Amino acid sequence: MSEHVAGEHQHGYIQRKDDYLRRLRRIEGQARGLQRMVEEEQYCIDILTQVAAMTKALQAVSLGLVEEHLAHCVVDAARASDEAAQEKISEAVEAIARLVKS
């Protein structure tokens, strides 16, 4: 995990922070809904449908954050130095690898 000091760098997603928080709260509500569905012993296919919807919502947040990282953090690092750019690109590749791992 990267070690960043608060205030050291303004993260690329900061301009859309409220949007991300809104989306994450919606996902949190979906998770509570899934728990409720299991507690109520609802039909497994209905639960799986909701799991798929929640998974897609999380993937959308992830893709947005990857895009923000590339557009801001990587670009800023590239302006600073080749070494800094390579470090940020490596971070992005590792994060993407974690996202696509099954």
Automatic annotation (TrEMBL):
Regions that span the bilayer: none
InterPro entries: Metal_Tscrpt_repr, Metal_Tscrpt_repr_sf
Keywords assigned by UniProt, alphabetized: Copper
Family as reported in the entry's similarity comment: Belongs to the CsoR family.
Protein name: Metal-sensitive transcriptional regulator
Organism whose genome encodes this protein: Nocardioides endophyticus
Organism ancestry: Bacteria, Bacillati, Actinomycetota, Actinomycetes, Propionibacteriales
